[in-house]
């Protein structure tokens, strides 16, 4: 029996499953709509699709670093509750996906979902099965891959996957000290959350906005116009030390800034060490969580 676009549309509206999944279900059941619905339910696809409208702001941030420390990935997998976020199968999926991305050329979440991580099942199908098993909407929100030739990549995961950080260091010498330093800087990024690597990477619009705020503050404080500009630039310098990683005070030893720490370790190792880049993922950042009154929720369930 020929499967028409109208049949696929009808099944999709009934179940909320994806177009390709609906077409596959209808093909497998020779166009029988009721059997196709059962097919999707058995595969967990219909149930998973119905959960897709829920807000998934919990979950885990997972990292993977290759044995030679030249390739690394940080990946965020979201779910609805922290209970599922602590589930072993959920965490294992996140770790497996991060490792898979590191060992592939995949560049987007969409590509990852269509890839076959193991056997004939796509990542999307594996995730759908996990959704059906654990009963919550889930999604791979984002990932970032780092690769380096001369140097190492270090990772740090804080709070059981609440925050994940990668730091890429360049250096001509591949010493164990380099990995230890990378870990310390990754911890710094997790703790202090710098907005930029250094002053050269700060967006000029950000600085212009801060200058205007400081100018208004100074004038409101009744400072003379002739010294306002000097005050503003002084506050800008202080602000840059707070938001730029290399200018921040090292949290593990306040005698150093990250810049002076790099200089000291470069002398120790006998080769210049630079921070190429870093990335920091915090679970659920930027996702608007739905707040519900517990009493109201109970009433909804009773109705």
UniProtKB/TrEMBL annotation:
<feature type="domain" description="Translation elongation factor EFTs/EF1B dimerisation">
    <location>
        <begin position="72"/>
        <end position="285"/>
    </location>
</feature>
<protein>
    <recommendedName>
        <fullName>Elongation factor Ts</fullName>
    </recommendedName>
</protein>
<dbReference type="InterPro" id="IPR014039">
    <property type="entry name" value="Transl_elong_EFTs/EF1B_dimer"/>
</dbReference>
<dbReference type="InterPro" id="IPR009060">
    <property type="entry name" value="UBA-like_sf"/>
</dbReference>
<keyword id="KW-0963">Cytoplasm</keyword>
<dbReference type="InterPro" id="IPR018101">
    <property type="entry name" value="Transl_elong_Ts_CS"/>
</dbReference>
<dbReference type="GO" id="GO:0005737">
    <property type="term" value="C:cytoplasm"/>
</dbReference>
<feature type="region of interest" description="Involved in Mg(2+) ion dislocation from EF-Tu">
    <location>
        <begin position="81"/>
        <end position="84"/>
    </location>
</feature>
<comment type="function">
    <text>Associates with the EF-Tu.GDP complex and induces the exchange of GDP to GTP. It remains bound to the aminoacyl-tRNA.EF-Tu.GTP complex up to the GTP hydrolysis stage on the ribosome.</text>
</comment>
<dbReference type="Pfam" id="PF00889">
    <property type="entry name" value="EF_TS"/>
</dbReference>
<comment type="similarity">
    <text>Belongs to the EF-Ts family.</text>
</comment>
<keyword id="KW-0648">Protein biosynthesis</keyword>
<dbReference type="InterPro" id="IPR001816">
    <property type="entry name" value="Transl_elong_EFTs/EF1B"/>
</dbReference>
<keyword id="KW-0251">Elongation factor</keyword>
<dbReference type="GO" id="GO:0003746">
    <property type="term" value="F:translation elongation factor activity"/>
</dbReference>
<dbReference type="InterPro" id="IPR036402">
    <property type="entry name" value="EF-Ts_dimer_sf"/>
</dbReference>
């Amino acid at each position: 029996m020929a499967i028409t676009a109208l049949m696929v549309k009808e099944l999709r509206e009934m179940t909320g499953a994806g177009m390709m999944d609906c077409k596959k279900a209808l093909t497998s059941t020779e166009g029988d709509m009721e059997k196709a619905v059962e097919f999707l339910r058995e595969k967990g696809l219909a149930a998973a699709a119905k959960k897709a409208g829920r807000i998934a702001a919990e979950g885990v941030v997972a990292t993977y670093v290759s044995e030679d420390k030249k390739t690394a990935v940080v990946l965020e997998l979201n779910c609805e509750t922290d209970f599922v976020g602590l589930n072993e199968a959920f965490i294992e999926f996140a770790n497996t996906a991060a490792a898979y991305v590191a060992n592939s050329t995949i560049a987007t979440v969409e590509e990852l979902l269509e890839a076959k991580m193991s056997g004939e099942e796509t990542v999307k199908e594996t995730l759908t099965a996990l959704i059906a098993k654990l009963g919550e909407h889930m999604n791979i929100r984002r990932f970032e891959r780092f690769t380096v030739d001369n140097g190492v990549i270090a990772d740090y995961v804080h709070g059981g996957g609440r925050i994940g950080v990668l730091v890429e260091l360049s250096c001509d010498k591949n010493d164990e000290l380099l990995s230890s330093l990378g870990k310390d800087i990754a911890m710094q990024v997790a703790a202090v959350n710098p907005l930029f690597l250094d002053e050269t990477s700060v967006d000029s619009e950000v600085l212009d906005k801060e200058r205007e705020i400081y100018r208004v503050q100074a004038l409101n404080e009744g400072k003379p116009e002739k010294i306002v500009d000097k005050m503003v630039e002084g506050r800008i310098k202080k602000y840059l030390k707070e938001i730029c990683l290399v200018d921040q005070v090292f949290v593990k030893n306040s005698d150093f800034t990250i810049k002076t720490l790099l200089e000291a370790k470069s002398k120790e190792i006998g080769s210049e060490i630079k921070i190429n880049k870093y990335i920091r993922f915090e679970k659920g950042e930027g996702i608007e969580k739905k707040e519900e009154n517990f009493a109201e929720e109970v009433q909804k369930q009773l109705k």
